[in-house]
Amino acid sequence: MSLDQEYRYRQTQLETRRHFLRHCTTGLGALALAGLGCSSPSTDQVIKTLTGHEDRMRHYFGRAKRVIYLHMAGSPSQLELFDYKPTLNQLHDQACPQSLLEGKKFAFISGVPKMLGHQANFKQHGQSGAWISNHLPHFCQVADDVCFLKAMHTDEFNHAPAQLFLYTGSPRLGRPSLGSWVTYGLGTENEDLPGFVVLVSGGKTPDAGKSVWGSGFLPSIYQGVQCRSQGDPVLYINNPEGMDRQLRGQTIKAINEINQKEYDEFGDDETLTRISQYEMAYRMQLSVPEVMDIGKEPQYIHEMYGTEPGKASFANNCLLARRMAEKGVRFIQLFHWGWDSHGAGKSEALNHGFLDRCKEVDQPMSALIQDLKQRGLLDETLVVWGGEFGRTPMMENRGGVTNPFAGRDHHTDAFTIWMAGGGIKGGVTHGETDEIGYYGIKDQVHIHDLQATMLHTLGIHHEKLIYPFQGRDFRLTDVAGKIVKEILV
Amino acid sequence: MRNRRLIWLVLFILILMGACSDGDPISYSDDIKPLLNKKCLRCHGGIRSLGGFSLLFPEQALAPTESGKLAIVPGKPAASELIARVKHHDPDLVMPQEGTLLTKDEIALLEKWIRQGAEFDKHWSYRPLLPSPPPSVKMNDWVKNDIDRYILDRMSKTGLTPNETADLSTLVRRLSFDITGLPPDVQHLHTLVGNDWAKEQIETIIDDLLASPHYGEHLAALWLDLARYADSNGYEKDMSRSIWRYRDWVIDAFNADMPFDQFTIEQLAGDLLPDPDKEQLIATAFHRNTMTNTEGGTEDEEFRTMSVLDRVNSTFELWQGTTISCVQCHSHPYDPFKHEDYYRLVAYFNNTQDADIDSEYPYLLEHSDSIKARMDERALEIHQLDSRYLGVKSSGDTKEKVRQLVFPRLFGDFADDFQSVLINSGGGFNNSAYNANNQKNKQYYLVFSDIDLDDIDGIRYHYFSRGDDALIEVYLDNLEGEPVLQTKMIEPAKKDWDWLTTSMMPQSGTHDLIFHFVNTSGDFRTGVVDLKEVELLRNNKPLDTKVRSLQDSLLRLYRSGILTPVMKDRTDLLSRQTHVFDRGNYLVKGDEVRAGVPQILNQNNAEVNDRLDFARWLVREDNPLTARVMVNRIWSHIFGEGLVSTPEDFGTQGALPTHPELLDYLAYHFSHDWNWSVKRLVKEIVLSATYQQSSKASPEKLELDPYNEYYSRGNRVRLSAEQIRDQALAISDLLNPKIGGKSVMPPQPDGVWQVVYNSDTWEAKKTEDKYRRGLYTFWKRTTPYPSMTAFDSPSREFCVSKRIRTTTPLQALVTLNDTVYIEAAQALGAFMEKTGKENLQEAIKKGFHKALLVDPDQQTVEVLEKLFYQANAPRPQLVSLRQETIKLDPYTVVANAIMNLDAFLTKS
């Protein structure tokens, strides 16, 4: 091989993951280790590279240091919560005009459905005069803290692909999730807790499965770690029966002493990494149950959130999110299942199951905003709430037959999400839909725009947060994404 | 004197070369292409060709650009616009417009290449495989086979020397993990080669390991990641899927050392071989590992298409190391593949029957001997009642036999072809669709080929309908002309399943029978008809009820068989055309394309017409990628890193091989004189001195070769997810060595499975299934086994060429706390207690040796001894909790520590 070839070979190697990952003591690898529970051998070195790394990945100042994403899996109806359209009420029970149906794809609606007026009453709230329905009596109080994006739109109208699209930028499997990208870019602030935590309520994981918190082609250290209110708070974190903390500490000490000798003999850096991993695991055994124990929170906090310790509820998860935010967890992802209000059954009817879901989330999500605010954390914590798509202004007529309960089909062209804190203006409504809430007519925001904007608040430019895979630089926003500047502080 | 003359000669040549700066030929693929990829192809490649200029193909690069200027004029750098632009002083005109400018050296390189004639030679991996003699080296006594010559040649140029051979125990442990995925079976080795092993016995041990049935399991673990094998069908509902017979087929094929060319052909096109046997059909389940989306409201055609595209992408990643998926939406950004090339490949895979339906039809059913015997009994009883069935052959294909024995009754699961009809595994079928909206746009067909219609003069349908809008038309042989029969499916009076009979002109001869479902209103309810069966009538009379009930019994037995989805091509009647999808969108169809392989890879313009041709083309002698890619996979499987560190990408953006000549040497022999024998390849690698080196790394070596790219030492690699589990079970003697069978559900923490619209539960088995190898653990795509994913095992939703190894605290928690590791520690602890015979140090040594095959040094023994006493110390707080609180046995604690050592979790 000529010198020139040799040089180019080295260049190629530098650009491959092999180098990327093996090179664990400097650069990104070290950050990964340091940030996500894999401290590397020398703390000094890690801190040095961590700073260097942050310079590289944090492209400019971002107000948000962390994200709490409240995902309403199944997609709640914007027309029963935020997007008030008096005309829709007037059209209630009338056949949908053909012009709205031509060239449209629906998941279930077929033939000519009827229009469905709001199954809610709306009033304006706060100084900003935001429209919020009577189903969210607590949320009205934080109207001036949040920013509504009313003309959201997406490309996918089935749950699993739409969730993948929202979290990975692609409706197909294999790409890293939002939380993975963020922790890949920024690491975490607390070495004793995972950098990307997932909290699930409603009894089911989201439709797209664990891929929505998977790391795709990024190393698995960036995947979300599910923390649970029942059973082990993190899988396998509890010692076996008969092994107390002291003995576990002694065991890990013995393991690490022998591993140190192993390192002296073989000189493999991986051995050092493993030593620090075991120490980290030992610390996590303390820090995870501690952060997961909401029992010690004062009574007024429990009343504020409506929490009941020991239950796997959305309320508990909101409180846990705040506790984790305080501890410096980078990305806290909540999923609450059960919003798929088709009206085919009672549990998924807008006037039954949907109302239960509203009750489950209204108080805690409002409390979360207030609590973060009173602790001075809201400015640096980006809170996002929403589903994977919206719902139709038409009543669902599954297979051409009117459903037994009031319900709406999946809708990609218009839905509402809200954001708060972390560099987002409060008391703002951005975007507008037409008179029946069917299409966005002003300031439309696409899923890739939302992703770009979220990364922006964290100080990351979405076009620069890349990972080389299969010969190409991949990014969360694929080849699109516009930052929604109007809503930034 | 002669020497001096030689020196002068050399000097003269050197001076001459210096004077004539263009003496060194510049290689496009080695020197120029990487530079173009980095600086130019983003805007002048397969996605964009700004200014009408693209560098992807030579003919484009040499063509006039939009401005009319020639970017490259061979031989004349000064006349080449490309050179002018990269040197330009005007910031608005200088190239590249995005990113950093070219350096002087890079510009000089481009100029030199153009001056030399701007030849476009092929990228290294597309060049033909040519054998070259191994280099001669000095340290001949170190060399064990030719691999070592290539390795040593490169190593010595950097001033490195190889390590000594690893000590025998370490080597045997390494060999055992690399060949069988398990730690060595010491007892067995003692019988094989006695108690004291010698270097000379290594080959005997290697042969023994290669003959072990566990070899196939270990190789299968590699293959199944590529084949995206899983026990569920993915997406939202992620229902269980019965496809484990394919997993066992892979194990058996590796164990039998099926030549890799045959292995390739059977998986990709076993169904198209002449008279395929059952195993060859099972092999085609390879591409039935794609996912099925049964979420309500999804469009089946969309997800069928996704599966077909996945088949193309996976095939190309797996066999050709080519990231063809880029070409789905546009021409490849960097590699020489055109947009339509992709769809010509799609055409090979686009004509199979599978259609994203719940039942995964078409599938193969296999039956146990006892079921077969009972089926034979039914057949006999049917013969006795009705002599017309005597003509049914007693041997041969089970499905065909049953089909004849139930004739003239027709069921969906015996159809020879279908379109849009949903067939369920009970044989029923209907014309509904997951997405009701698309229902009216579809054509619904069910085809039965070669039906004997002698004396048939009527048809009756066993059906259920919610309205009167469904119509069934019957066509003979083709869809042209008028149907021979039309039957309106009137809503049954009792709103229940009912029979509907229509008579027709008596028929004769053998015909293809085509049922066409028409929804006259397009309504999802009133125009949908469910059918359990269709019975052809002779003399307008149904079959005798006794015969019918025997047939029903036979069908129940038949349907209770083990189901495996397989590939099956459509009949000519329903064959599909393939179109280019504009920007990859399946709804926007462009030109129709014919099947074909990309020109750049088709060395001798072979005719490659169908899926079978295509499979054969992959393993043709003149397809150099297949052997290179596979050899690299096996190398990587053994060393933990490939000769090409991007096994998924041998294109121009992938890594270059560290040892190109060695890669070609192995690839050539693998595909020629070793007759595609994977065992032979594995043996060659593990017999090399390169492989057998100690993995100790001196500071000097770490400095010179931090990533061991020169192989001047053995690699230390963390064991895989499967190996970590298997090792713990094996050294504690808990492992159940059973090969194959249905996937098992060893204990996992409660509440892990929470999949929507799916009532499947994880049923931890108390039986010996608890201790099967990790490979057999039920693989649920949306929720894979958590203790294995902690160690980087993938979800198997798509083809994975390389697991990224990580080291995380979650892994520590698994091996410290997961039930199976505690049970293994208890077993190892019990062994220590028993063999130590009350001598603690002895017990520790025995346990350590059992786990790692080497004796611990004294310091290690003391550390573990101390731990033992710590564990043995009274712990009042435990006793006070609950009367029956178990105090962990101190031997278990020590064993738990041993089983968490770096040396234990690593292959040294």
Can you describe what's shown?
The complex is a heterodimer of chains A (489) and B (908). Chain A has three domains: 6-57, no CATH class; 66-230 and 310-487, Alkaline Phosphatase, subunit A (3-Layer(aba) Sandwich); 239-297. In chain A, 35% of the residues lie in helices and 16% in strands. Chain A is built from 14 helices and 17 strands. In chain A, strands 1, 4, 5, 6, 7, 8, 11, 12 and 15 form a nine-stranded mixed beta sheet that branches. In chain A, strands 2-3 form a two-stranded antiparallel sheet. In chain A, strands 9-10 form a two-stranded antiparallel ribbon. Chain A is globular, with a radius of gyration of 24 Å. With 908 residues, chain B is α+β, with helices and mostly antiparallel strands. Among the domains of chain B are: 2-121, no CATH class; 409-542, Galactose-binding domain-like (Jelly Rolls, Sandwich), CATH 2.60.120; 819-907, no CATH class. In chain B, the strands form five sheets. In chain B, strands 2, 4, 5, 7, 10 and 12 form a six-stranded antiparallel beta sheet that branches. A five-stranded antiparallel beta sheet of chain B has the order 3-6-11-8-9, with no helix packed on it. A two-stranded antiparallel sheet of chain B has the order 1-13. Chains A and B meet through helix 1, helix 2, helix 9 and helix 10 of A and helix 2, helix 25, helix 26, helix 29 and helix 31 of B.
Helix tally of chain A equals: 14
Helix residue percentage of chain B:
25-40%
Largest sheet of chain A: 9 strands, mixed
Name the chain pair with the biggest interface and residue counts per chain.
A-B, 100 and 115 residues
- As residue ranges, the low-confidence spans of chain B are 16-20, 878-885
Number of domains of chain A: 3
**Fraction of residues of chain A in helices?**
25-40%
CATH third-tier fold name of the largest domain in chain A: Alkaline Phosphatase, subunit A
Oligomer description: heterodimer
Q: Just name the CATH architecture of the domain at 409-542 in chain B.
A: Sandwich
